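We include this case.
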Amino acid sequence: MVTTESRLPDDALIAGILGGNKRLFEVIIRRHNQRLYRIGMSVLGNETEVEDAMQTAYINAYRHLPQFERRAAFSTWLCRIMLHQCYEQKRKNNLMHRLPEAQDNLACMKTPENVLAGKELGAILERAIGSLPEKYRLVFVLREMEDMSVRETSEALGIEPSNVKVRLNRAKGMLREQLGGYMKNNVYAFHLVKCDRIAAYVMARLENG
């Protein structure tokens, strides 16, 4: 359902949240779920771990919202928080010797949702993107699938704009040309049931303190 609040830009939502309307944060969550999920899959490659990272990232973003200085777009700031959380979880996974399991999950990503929806090709695309080295995969996802600009991607990843362009070209060169037209709407799709689950969990945590 499209509500009046869902049409508000991020800055207006943030002002309302800081003014005491905590429920507006649910609009933020639903608006950015797809992007954060794709970022998470690019780094962690495991749906359960990605959802955990998203929940933690949103809670951290809410708690630090008064410190958001608007030097970059809110979406870029949120991406940085998500990336930080993903890398933190990946570091812990390395310490626990669980990284090979995560890589296997990424390489063999064919979920029941994909099968039931007849998205075998989507699984093939996910495996192709998952086979890219992480630094190329992240740039590809942000630029080609999330339509972030070179500047936004540069700010989110903390690299030079020239490096964004080089890595994107390198990523494209690693993928087969015929995959390009299909992937934007079919790879790492964040289904409504997941969106509801993330939103419900985060808002419940915020309501309880």
Summary: The longest helix spans residues 74-95. Residues 98-118 have pLDDT under 50 and may be disordered. The chain has one domain: 5-207.
